[in-house]
Amino acid sequence: MRSIVVTAALSLLSTGLWAQQAQQSTATGDFSCFENLPTPEYPAAALQQHVDGSVWTWVQVTPQGTPGKVDTQVVSAWSSGEKLLVPAVEKAVQAAKIKPDCAGKRLSVVFRYELHGQETANPKVTSRREAPDIVWIESQPAITNQTASRSSSH
User: What are the two backbone dihedrals, phi and then psi, of residue 110, each rounded to the nearest 5 degrees?
Assistant: First the structure.
């Protein structure tokens, strides 16, 4: 049920987000301007509260080639999504290293947080990047020794 709500929210809001992004004609939506873009953490409070969602970011690169002002918009079925997910994303974007030839540009990246499996005390968090501008941060259930031994015995 939650995935249906999230999908519906993403559909409704993404239309507006794409329109906003299209208006920002100088926005570059790929990783080519980043020498290094750290993956944000999946905040522990968000994991504990089962909060997932997408954080759309637009960062204005300063004339010196460093991250400047970061604008965000959150798409989440959870009201606490913005409060819990945005700080980790902003921290990662501000720590990014940007190529000098991208100075003055406005860059866009989408960070998608997803929960998988049953709740565990210490889930494994993985990340992957998808062109042109999506970073996935996914929690996976921790594999217990009992689960691992059952898998290897079959």
Answer: -110, 130
- The residue written with tokens 């998988």 in the block is 116
Single out the residue of 123, 146, 119, 126 nearest to residue 40, CA to CA.
126
Q: Which residues contact 34 (CB under 8 A, 6 or more apart)?
A: 96, 97, 98, 99, 107
pLDDT tens-place string over residues 18-36: 444 433 434 566 688 999 9
Tokens encoding 148: 């691992």
Q: Which of 41, 39, 59 is nearest to 106 (CA)?
A: 59
As given in the structure block, the two tokens for residue 55 are 């954080």
pTM listed for this prediction: 0.72
What domains, with CATH codes, occur in the chain? 2-153 (3.30.2420.10)
